[in-house]
User: Fold these one by one.
Assistant:
Number 1:
Amino acid sequence: MKLNAVATLMKSLGFDRYDKMAMMEMLKQELYPEEPKKEVKVKETGPKYEFSMLYEDGVVSNYLRQDQWPVGVIVERKGMKFAIYCKQHECYDNTNRQDAERYASTLPRVEGIGWKVITERHCRAICDAVFFRNLNSQLDKVGWRKIVESRSKEVLTSDGHLTSTEWEIWFVMDL
């Protein structure tokens, strides 16, 4: 009965899919608080990568881990340390800023830290030809999409002004 009331309230407030997903994530965190971490032995495999990778359990490693897939690549540059979300997500390119920000709130938190739409400051931190090429190379080697390298397509930032008609959506987590 209470569930019907909540569904009716969300419908009357005009909740869209992203709002509902954010609400579900908040309820999940409220109902199932995080348990203390247990030491887990994992097997790291393959070559050592230049950039560390962040896993859902908060572990940072330069290696791929057996039976686990990283959620992001860590960038430490220009006084900043952040992870770029690299898993496949359903916030499609050309999504508007408000919907992208709502979607970011639904992504799984890592050690209590949430994801957000990338900012211009994050973009500037990776905007060096050699660094950018190395970062994109690792993204490609691990099987993720590469960050746009085009004059006609941009990256949506939460604090910038788009001048193109097409843009990519990327999320970051400040560490």
Number 2:
Amino acid sequence: MKFTHAWANIAKENLNLKAALFITSACVLLLGFATARLALKEPLVIERSCYSKNISLANSKPNLNEMNVFIEIALEQRFNSETVITEGYLSLEEKNNKKSEQSVLEKKSISQFLIVRKIDYLNSEVIVEADRLYSVQKVRSSFPIKLKLKLESKTRTATNPYGLILVKTQEIKKRSENVKK
């Protein structure tokens, strides 16, 4: 074999190896993008029963209806005397506020209930207009109350399917303007 033929075979083999390397690299990149795209897609969940069907997954971010229902449930747990606190709806601070408030009301034999009338969402604030009902034996009184709520997101659980937690409730008091004449 001549030196020129050997050199031509090596050059041809190098060219074939470069083409194979280019094609392999292109396949790896293409498969990498396809894998990343499929990994970021919502999973397909199939319910198994007498017949199989696709289940549409809920968005992890709560919608307006879920927020309204959560606010009503959380405020009921926070203010109502007879409602037991379900784990995951109220922050530790709000649980402590309820306990101290309820102990004062129990000493006076007063029951408290809250009825939500209107929920407004202003930027990142939630403003709730409600009626606070006090009950002393058979005597009942209703007072309007306006609350500013602070909510935070958390993971959805079996006990709290809304993925929200009531962090803080603050009563908005009307400022009385006494004008001296």
Number 3:
Amino acid sequence: MPTRLVSFLTICLLLPLVAVAQEATKNPSLEKLHQAIAEIVSKHYPESTSHLFEQTIGFEHATRVYVTRLAAKYPPGVKPPVAPERGPLANGVWGQVWYRDGDMNDQPAYQRSEGVMQREFFKEHRYYANDAQKQGHLIVTLRLPLETTPKHRQFVTELRALLNQFGKYVPAPEG
């Protein structure tokens, strides 16, 4: 095989790996934030599990998959499509915390606003936390049972307090 062809093939095979390595160095480590979130979740839900995958932290306890209407706006008379969504049982919780680069004050607003939406089988909290100094923000989705208890309210209060200061758990951006 000619040397030029081997060099070309080698470059084609390595370029995706270089791009992934560069992307990984841009994203800050969420290990400390994951640990802090996991501590609060396990305090309120001792048998919960949590995970960190790339720039997303997830946690859950006593959940199942529901077939429910998608959370979106549709014209009057048009029923939203249904899809499988993981949500909590009566004593459960489900959450996802997604880290994104950039100060939210410098970017267009997200399509969905903050707040609590009552879905068919659970309540869904949407929350955005911003750290302008660290140039990053979080998109938080938290699902709790329809019946809200003082235990749930206390959990939400503690989790939001942590998320409001998430920047102290995330390293400063490089460069």
